[in-house]
Amino acid sequence: MLYTLGWAFGVNMMNSRYDLKQIMDIDKWHKLQDSMSLVTKMAIITVDYKGVPVSKHSQCQAFCSAVRKDPALSSYCQKCDARGGLEAVRSNKPYIYQCHFQILDIAIPIVVDDQYIGAVMAGQVKLRDPDVPIEQIVTRPSNVETDKKFKALREEYESLPVLSFEEVEKIADMLFHLCNYIVEEAIRKSDMLEMYRNSITLEHPAHAPDSSYEHIQALQSELSNTLIEKKIKKSSNVYQAGNSLLQPAFDHIFRHKHENVDLKDMAALCHVSPSYFSRIFTKETGENFSVFVPHLKIGWAKELLETTELAVNQISDELGFADAGYFIKTFRKFENLTPAAYRKIYRNNREF
């Protein structure tokens, strides 16, 4: 599926810096894909950003397998794949559609840091609810030859799994969140290992084993901040202090969004006493340090809620809150509603 997508997506897609085959263990991924296919009753295949398969086909139905081997019919299948994948990328969410045989398929984009890196194509099922309006994205003109082929495969067609539209929607949503989460975690680990290797090679050619753990921790902290910076795009990453004494503290706060910063540490960074730092900080910002920093982090949290699918507890961790409960309490203090409620209201308003 999706074998002809490469031409449809343009320069940004073709310049993807991520390669699914390099960042993931494809053998393990395929075992997971097989399990998902059995649970969902859908055929599934994973492709890279060019539309080239990176996994084998899981549970490909006999009818679809036969149609795709037919030269006259397979071209229509490829057109369906390309159009379905393109619509999924454009909307950045699963796209449910019907193929030229009115079989239901789903194109599920894998998007990391607003970059399309591949897709999971699922489907090959029939819809139990015939009245649900679902776009048939490619039509195939009827002729004697294709009608004859279809009749020969009638038994295979009738044996296709049947699902309700509600079941299809839930499966699409589950696959979207699961696939993107797994791929994003794989990229995080891949990037961290690459940073570690580069650092060892360039900076520590004789790196001692007993300091490796601390070094990895430092790299992990650096990587965490880099990843969160990519997700927070609207907020400025710099703050120009009116009082230059405070600039090191503001630079640290904005460059280490994932840390739980302490007033005493910031005072030491600015080479002043904690009491003096507290006074000039309040004069600079109009808020106590203990109010300004969480208020700032809640602003970053709002952007993550608006622009990502990160869970509330993940956002809490990303922004250095002690735990999710404290994050929710702090969010409610400043916004008068919970993070989950904020995300729901924001997305409902965006739809209108």
Structural description of this entry:
With 352 residues, this protein is an alpha+beta fold. It has two domains: 6-183; 232-351, Arc Repressor Mutant, subunit A, CATH 1.10.10. The protein contains 16 helices and five strands. The protein has helices at residues 10-14, 20-23, 26-40, 62-69, 71-91, 144-152, 154-158, 165-202, 212-231, 247-255, 263-269, 274-285, 289-307, 312-318, 324-335, 339-351, and strands at residues 43-48, 95-98, 104-112, 115-127, 162-163. Strands 1, 2, 3, 4 and 5 form a five-stranded mixed sheet that branches.
What is the tally of helical segments?
A: 16
Question: Percent of residues in helical segments?
Answer: 55-70%
Please give the largest β-sheet.
5 strands, mixed
**For the terminal residues, how far apart are their CA atoms?**
34 Å
Low-pLDDT residue spans? 1-15, 206-213, 215-223
The chain-level structural class is alpha+beta
Rg, alpha carbons: 26 Å
Q: How many DSSP E strands? A: 5
Secondary-structure element sequence? HHHEHHEEEHHEHHHHHHHHH
Tally of individual domains: 2
Q: In percent, how much strand structure appears in the residues?
A: 5-15%
